Amino acid sequence: MSGKVFLVGAGPGDYKLITMKGLECIKDADVIVYDRLASPKLLTYKRNECELIYVGKESSNHTKTQDEINEIICEKALEGKIVTRLKGGDPYVFGRGGEEGQYLIDRGVDVEVIPGITSAIGGLAYAGIPITHRDYASSFHVITGHLKEENQELNWEVLAKLKGTLVFLMGMSELKNISANLIGNGMKANTPVAVINWATTERQKVAVGTLDDIYDITLREGLSSPSLIAVGDVVKMRGSLNFFENKLLNGKKVLVTRARAQSSTLSDKIYNLGGTPIEFPTIKIEDLSEEKSITDEIMKVKEYNYIIFTSQNGVKLFFNRMIDLGLDMRQLANATIVAIGNVTAQEIKKYNLIADIVPKKYIAEGIYEELENRLSSDDKILIPRAKESRDFLVDELNKICFVKELKVYQTVLGEGIQSQDNIKKMIMNKEIDYITFTSSSTVKNLVKMIGDPEILKNSHLISIGPITSKTMMELGLEVYREAEDYDIDGIIKVLVDCKG
Ligand code: SAH
Fold first, then answer.
1. Atom of ligand 1 nearest to the CA of 198
2. Residue 263 pLDDT > 90, yes or no?
């Protein structure tokens, strides 16, 4: 049975600009055939077994010829596979999608096309340029600048007379000729032009000038391919509509040291604010909740009248184990539930329980202050938490009543180990603007992984709260800023304030 090929537009660069259908195709594919302009981040959504084939083209240095690409896609589909052909922007805008589709249909392969946001429109938008505007342009024209390869001559006389916005793709090697041809055919030399390099990505750079000087400006600023060349009065709107480059964390690289499974919230918030999160998981969570001593205690959970949760991990592992053991939330009907902070409380809510107490200060001391006057010697407290937690809470509460600590997980050295040298180099070359620490173990492990705290001395180190800061100082590291609220939003607030 023949498979199927989806010709999918990946959007202009920002990976979130793909369509829902496009993402579905990535998630379902047996094979993904992709090129240079499709965001690599999109590939992380593939199935584990999915085969990846890179057929990227640098404009003059083709990795694979178009014929070879057609053959690869066709062959895989005829083997019965679902093939997602992922292309930058829209597959039919200078993407040779039409040729690929035709080739496949001629050979009896089922083809479906998922349009994407073309860089010609989306790339301009991210540079603050609306491609049409009632005051400036009532049409637009998307033109290939790669004249030699296309082996066609453009009608410059007509192009120069158009009143709409002109957008040249693949035009950087011809920029000088494009300007000269437009001026030579009567377009005003002071017509505004923008060159947008790596539009919609963290590398976006924009040069603005006129037909007369844009070539020199672009050379001076070192912009090359891939770039869009936008010609017309709409370029003037950039002054007011430049939302992307004005994002609060634009251009900032932030190291995220949390465990991979947990890093997504922080990373996503950084990304949505225009920053670049660099994930380097220094810790990994190891589930210990299966151990007999722990399951025995969980079976007796009903005997406790206080349960204290000090992390999201603790909540998840404890409740999942409870459910595995055949217990449900009725077991906790008489218990007071304490959460160390909002995020932990939110996690508890997922299990249909509402935390009764969330202290003002999101640390163990905060919990102790809330509880010390409520507790009596008859109370029984259960604390499911990390093996390496500080002694403070258990020691202090033990002075009042019975306390049982359940070490439901431990944090071990993370999975970032493969990219260790790379990260070390980036830190030493000051390519990273901020390093975030969300727990003491992220501090200790980062130091362990890069080998020497000295390497971190010149970096801006951001701490989630006083306990993490203390660990940093013990290792001789300077805390650049500490979050006021000891959670992820607290860290985000610090990052934004630093930028401002
Ligand atoms: N199908 C794509 C275009 C492919 S042709 C689309 O719809 O966007 C390749 C050219 O597109 C590049 O040479 C460049 O001119 C432009 N391009 C694509 N993505 C770009 C980006 N993120 N930034 C700037 N130019 C881009």
1. 23
2. no
Catalytic residue set = 35, 57, 170
**Residue 152 binned pLDDT confidence (cut-offs 50, 70, 90):** low
Neighbours of 423 (CB within 10 A): 22
Q: Is the pLDDT of residue 82 over 80?
A: yes
d(CA 189, CA 187): 6
For the entire predicted model, the pTM comes to 0.86
What is the residue with the minimal CA distance to atom 2 of ligand 1? Answer: 89
Q: Is 227 in the pocket of ligand 1 (CB under 6 A)?
A: yes
Find the 395 Cα to ligand 1 centroid distance in Å.
61
Give CA torsion, residues 90, 93, 97, 101, to 10 deg: 100
Q: State whether 11 and 102 are in the same domain.
A: yes
Query: Within 10 Å of residue 49's Cβ, how many Cβ atoms?
Result: 6
Question: Are 409 and 428 contained in the same domain?
Answer: no
Q: In this structure, what are the phi and psi dihedrals at residue 353, rounded to the nearest 5 degrees?
A: -125, 145
3-state secondary structure of 414: coil
Q: Which residue has the tokens 């992380």?
A: 44
Share of the chain above pLDDT 70, in %: 96
Q: What letter does residue 456 receive in the DSSP assignment?
A: G
Using the predicted structure, report yes or no on whether residue 454 has a pLDDT greater than 50: yes
From 99, 169, 173, 201, the mutation candidate for ligand 1 (largest count of ligand atoms within 8 A of CB) is 169
Identify the CATH number of the domain in which residue 227 sits: 3.30.950.10
**Ligand 1 center–CA 238 separation, angstroms:** 20
Distance between CA atoms of 135 and 52, rounded to whole angstroms? 46
C-alpha to C-alpha distance for 225 and 174, rounded to whole angstroms: 11
Q: Given a cut of 50, is residue 154 above it in pLDDT?
A: yes
pLDDT > 80? residue 59: no
Measured from the Cβ of residue 142, the count of other Cβ atoms closer than 10 Å reads 17
Same structural domain, 75 and 155: no
Range of the domain at 112: 4-116
Question: pLDDT tens digits, residue range 94-140?
Answer: 989 999 999 999 999 999 999 999 999 999 999 999 999 999 999 99
- Ligand 1 atom at minimal distance to the Cα of residue 91: 1
User: Of 18, 90, 147, 228, which is best to mutate to test ligand 1, by the most ligand atoms within 8 angstroms of its C-beta?
Assistant: 228
